[in-house]
Write a structure and sequence with these properties.
83% of the residues lie in helices and 0% in strands.
């Protein structure tokens, strides 16, 4: 497996994991005034979107170089 393919695979898996984490964090019931799970869920969504954006940017960049 080439380094480029591994990079695309790694970014894809990282974004999927980020969205799974966000889904888990957002479904945890807020008890005892602990909204930290909501913040973590929001950050998970934000990082997942950033990873997808980065993945498309990287894909376009390697298409031009190849």
């Amino acid at each position: 497996m080439s380094l480029k393919a591994f990079h695309i695979l790694f970014v894809t898996l990282a974004s999927v994991l980020s969205f799974v984490f966000a889904a888990w964090a957002l479904q945890v019931p807020v008890e005892d005034g602990m909204p930290v799970y909501r913040y973590m869920g929001g950050l998970g969504l934000l990082f997942g979107a950033a990873l997808i954006t980065y993945g498309f940017w990287f894909w376009r960049k390697i298409r031009r170089l190849a």
